[in-house]
Amino acid sequence: MMSGGGYTSIDNQKVPGSVPAVSGADHVTVKFADSSLQTFPPSEAQGKISAVFRPPSDADDTFSKPARGSSDESQPTGWMHKFTVGAYKPYFDVDTSDVLERIRDSLFSFKGSFTEKTADNPDLYGPFWICTTLIFVAASIGTFVTYLAHKLQNKDWNYDINLVTWSAGLFYGYVTFVPLGLYIILKYFSAPSGLVQLWCLYGYSLFIFIPALCLSIVPVEIFRWVIVGVAGFMSATFVALNLRTHIKSAGERWFFIVAGIFLLQLALAVILKLYVFTVTVGAE
């Protein structure tokens, strides 16, 4: 130990228990890999931490096995597969953005690109909820229209529950059987189209009737006819233009098929006007 100028220095070589300043021959050098703070998380994990999950070595064999009943081997095959939920799961594999985009495309009926966009992933989720919404909107708006008409004339009013069942039969039946019939016709003319794709197209074509039914609450008969007529024309144009290119392969009769599709969609709008928004007020 030396002291000078008020400072004390310690000779490390002579202090018991100190770490030698010079390493011996068996010294092990510890090196750290250079880290890049610009990339997080690291692109490749090192050491014992890896990006791939593995069960511990002492884990039971059932740790990595699927639960009983969830294996594909237990699912029915052949035609029995059509009666399982898993057979229809791909047709409901859409998110909110997909449904909103398809609804938006149905409102721009003159584009005619809906079938191209949904060719790889047609869904039944949107058509189901559109039809269900239409049933309750048609029943509730139609009921309110008749209620308002009776009250304005001081007439007694009774709720008609048959309006709900009638609306359900109309929309569910139309979306189910009209595409099915069209599928059989196109198959006959050697221009087959996917049945699910037709259901998807017709289901989204009915969305325009939801705002139309809401606007039809205005108690002006001419205004109601105009609203329902415009909605029917847009819906019919949407279906006809999206099927026109495909049906052209059916031969010379493709024009009559497209015209029939267009007129049938217009007929749906007329039926809605006559049976939902035609108010008859009986005498007391």
From TrEMBL:
Per the record's keyword annotation, is Transmembrane included, yes or no? yes
Q: Where are the transmembrane segments?
A: 127-149, 169-186, 198-218, 224-243, 255-276
Biological process, per Gene Ontology: vesicle-mediated transport
Topology relative to the lipid bilayer, per the entry, is:
Multi-pass membrane protein
Recorded GO cellular component terms are: Golgi membrane
Q: What does the UniProt keyword field contain?
A: Membrane, Transmembrane, Transmembrane helix
Q: Where is this region: Disordered?
A: 48-76
Q: Where primarily located? A: Golgi
- The Yip1 domain is annotated at 110-271
**Single GO molecular function:** small GTPase binding
Q: Where in the cell is it found?
A: Golgi apparatus membrane; Membrane
Question: Which Pfam families does this UniProt record tie to the protein?
Answer: Yip1
Matching entries from InterPro entries are given as: Yip1_dom, Yip5/YIPF1/YIPF2
Give the family this protein belongs to, as stated in its UniProt record: Belongs to the YIP1 family.
Its name, as the record gives it, is Protein YIP
Q: Organism source for this protein?
A: Elaeis guineensis var. tenera (Oil palm)
The organism that produces this protein has a lineage beginning with: Eukaryota, Viridiplantae, Streptophyta, Embryophyta, Tracheophyta
Gene designation per UniProt? LOC105047765
